[in-house]
Structure formats: structure tokens, C-alpha cells
Amino acid sequence: MSVRLDVERRRHGTKFRLFPQPYFLEPYSEPETVWVSSPAGTVGPGPSDDRMYVIDPLGKALPYGSQRGPRGSSYIYLPPWDGQVGPPAMPNRFGHFDHLEPGTPEFEAAHLFGAVRWVLDIWEDYFGTRIPWHFREEYERLEMVVLSQWDNAQVGFGFLEVGSEVSERVGTFPFALSFDTLAHETGHAIIYAMVGLPTLETEEGEYFGFQESAADLVALLSSLHFERVVDHLLTSTSGNLYTFNELNRFAELSETKQIRIASNDLKMSDFAAGWADEHILAQPLTGAMFDIFVDVFQENLLERGLIDPEVEALSDQIEKHPDYADLIQSRFDAAYEGNHSGFKEALLDARDYLGNALAETWGRLSPHFLNYDDVGRVLLEVDRQLTGGRYQQVILTNFRWREIGDVAVGPRLAKPDEASHSFSDRTLQPDQGPVQGRLSYAARRRIARNGRRPAQ
Ligand SMILES: [Zn+2]
């Protein structure tokens, strides 16, 4: 969201504390305060407001979605939860939720609510309109469920449900505290609402990659709304995102998962023989968008006189001359010294340019026969309208480098596995059930494809 709106929210909104990244990563061990759009005093116990509510269901054994009954028959399990619930997180007397202590179930519930609400706020600002739920004809509000013993996270018809991840390194990590996961899931909900789903007759493989790419870009740009993420990104690179990205070294240095995913070097020819996982198929598109972001940032630095054109010229040659890397870094270090606020402004401008351009682009796309070159074509059109075409060359160069529009993606090589997001519990709807009995081909296929997915 724009810096101006952020200031406005600080006056009237409701306070939450969010971990920008998992708390076991330095320098993110302390949560950061954010203000969501709901005016202080309007968010009730849960938390809950007019769009969504969090519950801790007691005795809920299974996640929502397609389930098997005792005799092996399938059925669709959807909200609302009608059993007992644990104690809700309560606001303080000013209506805020920033008094809750990490390590308590109430903090987790507030973190879940605050993250989803904040991401929705950020993207409603980019879209310039309220983002409705795709399930609005059936449910008024999104039910957000903490299901601690489950090892997954998903958004679906009327629900967003999160479990926990168990690893040797950190023990149990609740997804309710994973901003990246929550922002990614909210990203899927945004795309379901604003782009929609193709039918079996109109689906293209690239649609599935587009869904994952969009969810990752929602998470990436949302995470750049945390002061600490932006400050850390700049202090650890001196603003030299371009060189790091070109050399693909940035990924190793960054503790930010979304940036690790986005700074990849996959091209369409890597998928010419076919593809199996839409999260990987997503990467050329996500990578193109990340490179556009970095290029726009660099243009902003040049325009503000914060770097000189020679640095940009050197950066352009880095692929052929990797030995320039140290020289470029030293030039950035010198330019950044004493200019943090100018660099930060340039970064936030690049963030908001891409956020606005993506929202406008997604709003114009049809889910039917959708391919990455459609995204590029509409983005160029949107850029002409937003900026008078200032970034045409940047967009064209990055889409071409990824071979988008030049190389076609091959066939899907494997049946959707457990990680598949698009046809799954997420997209099951009440009118497709109960599963037994007469069903459309589409519903049977969706159900056949259903599986448990790792959160990603
Ligand atoms: Zn996903």
C-alpha cells in the first residue's frame, strides 16, 4: 500500500504484531507492529471482523475439503465449524491486539488474523477496490482455523486452515506465525476472486504456474511492507539487488524465502519438454517480475541521482564479466553510505509501481486459455496507461530473457501430486457434493486430483 495510506492507518487502524519472517531467523526474532484497516474498536474477540474470524476448534480432527467417511465413501467437509471452540484472543481496552505475548495461543490467533487482514488491505489498495471472497454467495466471512496437529496450510471454499511444521532444527513451527505462508494463501484467495478459474476445456498448463507465481508475488510485495525487511534488504546489499540477482548469489544471502524463490534463473526452455510441478513452472514468470522490480528500483536510483549511469552500465555487463562484481558492489557501498532514506524511497516506489501494475494486470486477465505471454502483453498495456510507457523496455527485456512468448511449455508430465494447489480442496464447492451419486466430469476429476499438500 502507499506510504500515505500507511500513515492514515496508523491514526485509525487496529494494531497487531507480526513476525516478518519466522522468528528463528535473525534479524526477525521480534514481531513488528502493523496497523490493519479495521478501525480500532471494530475487531472483536477471535479476532473477528466483518470479513473474517479466527477460531480454535476443540476436537476438530480433520481439515476441511474432501474426506473419506467410515465406509470409504467420500464427502465434502466445509465450514462453519459447529463444535466447541477454545478461548478467543481478546482486544485490549483501546481495541488493539498488540498486547498479546508470543508463545500463547491468543498471540497465534491474532497473528493469523492480522497477517491475512493486512495482506488483504495492501492488495485492496493496489486494486483500488474491495476484493470480494470467491465464495461470497455461500459464506459472508472467511473462517480461519488453527488445526495444530495438521502438517499443512490451505485456503479453500469459505476457509483458511493452518497447521504446524515439525523439524529437527526448530521443533514445532505453527503456520499461523509464518507470514510468507499466510500471505501466499491470501494471494491464492485474491486470484480466485479477481481472475477466477478456467474450466477443464479452457485450462492451460501455464494457468497453474500463474496461480503459484501470483501467490508468491503477493507474499513478496506484502513482505516489503515491513520496515525491517526493507531496512535489512538495503543494509545487507547497499541497494545492489541487480548484481546479486544476476549472479544468483542473492538467494544464498537472503533469509527472506520469497526473495529466494523470486531470484531464480529458470527460462521457458527449461519446461519445453514438459513440467510436473506448478511451483517450479511458476518460476520463470515470478523471476521476470522480480527482475522488473529490481530494474525499476535501479531506474529510480538513477533518476534521483543516487547512483551514476556508469554503475548501471557495469551492472548490464555482469553476465559477461562476473569479475566486475566486486567493483560494482564497492560503487553501491559508496553510493548508499549516508543515503539510506533516498534508497528506501526508491525501493518503496518500485514496490508500489509493481503492486499497482500487477493488480491492474490481473484484473484484466481471463483465466481461460491463460498463458504467460498474455500476462506480459497486458502488463505492457497497463504500463502505458500507468506511466506513459516508461518501463516498456524493462518489461520486454525481462520477458524475452525468460523466453516467455518464444518457447511453449510442454505437456504436464505427471498427474498432480500432493503439492498441487489449483484443483484440490481449495476449489471444491458445495454444489459439487456430496461426492457419491451423480457428479459432473469436472467434479469427479477435481475430486480424483484431491490430495494433501505441503504448505507452500
Ligand atoms: Zn500455492
What is the C-alpha radius of gyration, as a whole number of Å? Answer: 22 Å
The overall pLDDT, averaged over residues, is 85
Number of domains: 2
CATH architecture level-2 label of the largest domain: Roll
> What is the ordering of alpha helices and beta strands?
HEEEEEHEEEEEHHHHHHHHHHHHHH
Distance between the termini: 24 Å
- Tally of separate helices: 16
Bound molecules: zinc ion
Task: Estimate the strand proportion.
Answer: 5-15%
- Give the overall silhouette: globular
| CATH-defined topology of the largest domain | Elastase, domain 1
CATH class of the largest domain, anyone? Answer: Alpha Beta
**How many β-strand stretches?**
10
For the biggest sheet, the summary is: 4 strands, mixed
Structural class: alpha/beta
Question: What do you see in this structure?
Answer:
- The chain has 456 residues and is of the alpha/beta class.
- The protein has two domains: 3-197 and 422-449, Elastase, domain 1 (Roll), CATH 3.10.170; 222-401.
- Helix content is 44%, strand content 9%.
- The protein contains 16 helices and ten strands.
- The strands form four sheets. A four-stranded mixed sheet has the order 3-6-8-7, with helices on one face. Strands 1-2 form a two-stranded antiparallel sheet. Strands 4-5 form a two-stranded antiparallel ribbon.
- The two termini are 24 Å apart.
- The structure holds zinc ion.
- Zinc ion is lined by residues 184, 188, 212, 215, 421, 456.
